[in-house]
Amino acid sequence: MSVVPAEVLPGSTRAVTETVRGAAELAPRARLWPSLVAVYRAQLSRARVARIPLLFVATFQSVGILIMMRGVVDGGSEAESVVAGSAVLVVAFVALNLLAQYFGQLRASGGLDHYATLPVPPAAVVLGAAGAYASFTVPGTLVTAVFGCVLFGLPLTHLWVLAAVIPLAGAALSGLGAAFGLLAPRPELATVLGQLGMSAALLLGVLPPDRMPEVVRFARDLLPSTYGVEAFARTFGPDPDWAFVLGDLAVCAGVGVVSLAAATWAYRRAAVQ
């Protein structure tokens, strides 16, 4: 007869505890940053197929607006607003319009079920997709800003501020675009919401604020991209007030955190339905 210790029997509490611990060690919790990088690379590879049409449409639209506004605006602060608004409009086209369509179609086709089975945090899915789509706006934004400065005779000295404007404005608008796509009950409605958001960014961001009624100015202040436009427009002056520039960028960053948090909540809500 052999004697077996009670703690190693299959039905013992200690054996169950050790089994649970072993399972936990085999499946550690996924961290946010590695998951974010993985989703970003996957989305970047997927969206690369449509990169050329995307860049052409977004850039051509903003350049066309600059040429059209050249016949209306001569220079000064109005030209600064037009150039800054047209540059940020490239970001809005992708972050609001295309991202809303992407998440709307993903929800309708059941693609969220695939992401729900992956060991990645919900925030990594939202941030990775938003970052991948926003990455394609960099060339178009730079081309639009340089073309606008040359067209209106504005200085090119402080174009480096776009390195902060693009990601911060992109984060704020991407969160809204993703939330539109995830909360809309149908993909067609997500497309409509994205296009309405882009139209608001066009009308309220490109047109000079001095010519707007007071009610429209209030609506402009509620638009997240407005603060990216203001931050960029302030740098065209001979002596920019960097305190106001940093303040606008800080507001844009704060709105970005809130909008991305809302998009993460919308993703969790859509994934369990």
Please give a structural write-up.
The chain has 273 residues and is mainly alpha-helical. Helices cover 77% and strands 0% of the residues. The protein contains 12 helices and no strands. The chain has helices at 13-26, 32-47, 51-70, 76-108, 111-117, 122-135, 137-152, 162-183, 187-206, 214-222, 225-234, 242-271. It starts with 12 loop residues before the first helix and ends with a helix. Residues 4-9 and 15-27 have low confidence and may be disordered.
- Integer average pLDDT: 83
Beta-strand percentage range: under 5%
What share of the residues lie within helices? over 70%
* Gyration radius from CA atoms, angstroms: 24 Å
What composes the largest sheet? none
Descriptive terms for the model:
single chain; 273 residues; mainly alpha; 12 helices; elongated
Write the layout of secondary structure elements.
Blueprint: H1 13-26, H2 32-47, H3 51-70, H4 76-108, H5 111-117, H6 122-135, H7 137-152, H8 162-183, H9 187-206, H10 214-222, H11 225-234, H12 242-271
Helix pairs in contact: 2-6, 3-4, 3-7, 4-6, 4-7, 4-8, 4-9, 4-11, 6-8, 6-12, 8-9, 8-11, 8-12, 11-12
